[in-house]
């Protein structure tokens, strides 16, 4: 699917990009090459390929899920105007 110069100008306008007349032909060629590559990739049968979260077969190192700070609720709520049952009370803004 070849990209025409008019397509490049339309895309540039939609993206609010300034493209000079000298660049239009080059961009059209580059975009056509990209679209050809995408078409080739769409033709490949990937029905037996399992999706991966990472291009390399690696597992992510995870840290231990443990509490590292103590609860400071009472200390933090000392400056609050109004609290109830450990919650900050604020004036209603939406009826």
Give a topology summary.
Elements (H helix, E strand, L loop, with lengths): L4 H10 L6 H22 L30 H5 L5 E2 L2 E2 L7
Antiparallel strand pairs: 1-2
Helix pairs in contact: 1-2
Describe what you observe in this structure.
It is elongated, with a radius of gyration of 28 Å. The chain is built from three helices and two strands; from the N terminus they run H-H-H-E-E. A hairpin with a 2-residue loop joins strand 1 (83-84) and strand 2. The model has no long low-confidence stretch (mean pLDDT 91). Helix 1 (5-14) packs across helix 2. It is mainly alpha-helical. A two-stranded antiparallel sheet has the order 1-2.
Question: How far apart are the first and last residues' alpha carbons, in Å?
Answer: 55 Å
Unreliably modeled segments: none
Estimate the helix proportion, in percent: 25-40%
- SS elements, strand count: 2
Mean pLDDT: 91
Strand order of the largest sheet: 1-2
State the order of secondary-structure elements, H for helix, E for strand.
Answer: HHHEE
Question: Radius of gyration from the CA trace?
Answer: 28 Å
Our count of helices gives 3
Structural class, by secondary structure, is mainly alpha
The largest pleated sheet is described as: 2 strands, antiparallel
Based on Cα principal axes, name the global outline. elongated
Could you tell me the strand content as a percent range? under 5%
User: What's the quaternary structure here?
Assistant: single chain
């Amino acid at each position: 699917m070849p990209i025409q110069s008019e397509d490049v100008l339309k895309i540039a306008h939609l993206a609010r990009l300034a493209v000079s007349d000298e660049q239009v032909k080059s961009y059209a060629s580059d975009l056509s090459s990209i679209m050809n590559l995408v078409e080739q990739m769409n033709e490949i049968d990937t029905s037996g390929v399992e999706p991966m979260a990472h291009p390399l077969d690696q597992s992510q190192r995870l840290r231990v899920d443990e509490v590292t700070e103590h609860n400071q609720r009472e200390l933090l709520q000392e400056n609050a105007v109004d609290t109830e049952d450990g919650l900050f009370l604020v004036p209603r803004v939406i009826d």
